[in-house]
Amino acid sequence: MKLEKEGAGLPNMERLFIKNTIVPLVRTFFTWDMALFLLKKEVQKIEKLVSQIPKELLGKQVIINRAFAIEDHSRQYSLNMLCEHLTITGMGVSSVIKNLSKEKKPKGDITIEQVKPKNNDDNSLEKFLNFMKMYENMINKLEKKQSLTKQKHPWFVEFNNFDWSVFMYIHTFIHRRQAEEIIRILKKDLYVK
Fold first, then answer.
1. Nearest 5°: phi and psi at 75?
2. What separation in angstroms does the CA of 59 have from each of 3, 4, 84, 121, 163?
3. DSSP secondary structure, 17-79, as one string
């Protein structure tokens, strides 16, 4: 099966639904604390899911079925790659939040290609969990004021610092679902218990 190239994006109707429905709803109903609380819950779920899989299978790439908000190229990840992607993306988002909170425009545009996993390392979960401790600490110390300065998401609209903190939760939620699907396939095809 040939997947689209990285950065090709989401189907147009899906992207527009997220941009015009989900983003405005999230801006209305979320708070800084709610976003962090929900993000921590997703991280706990990912840790539990990935920890149950034998180490020798964490690097096994599988192709999942098309899933909401996951571009085609990203459907062929291993669990290690998924954790690496969450860490790379999280580090970038963390930097953007810090800059926007100081009303500084981050240098350069964010691209999808920048956040793709490259290593498939066996310690990707550990790196992700360590990053998340740093991220939680950073958010807890941050003044909870929405910035006027914004940074554009490659697929959607410009986000301020608060929007990016909510994005961290939504992005992690989406990829937790991907982890569940990877594990479902590993269990089916490789008889993991």
1. -75, -10
2. 19, 21, 11, 7, 32
3. HIIIIIHHHHHHH--HHHHHHHHHHHHHHHHHHHHTS-GGGTT--EEPPP-TT--GGGGEE-H
In this prediction the pTM is 0.93
Largest CA distance in the chain: 51
- Residue 88 contacts residue 192 (beta carbons within 8 Å): no
Q: Is residue 87 helix, strand or coil?
A: helix
Burial of residue 142, with CB atoms counted within 10 A of its CB: 0-12 exposed, 13-18 middle, 19 or more buried: middle
Which domains are present in the chain?
12-190 (1.20.120.450)
Give the tens place of pLDDT for each residue, 38-71: 999 999 999 999 999 999 999 999 999 998 989 9
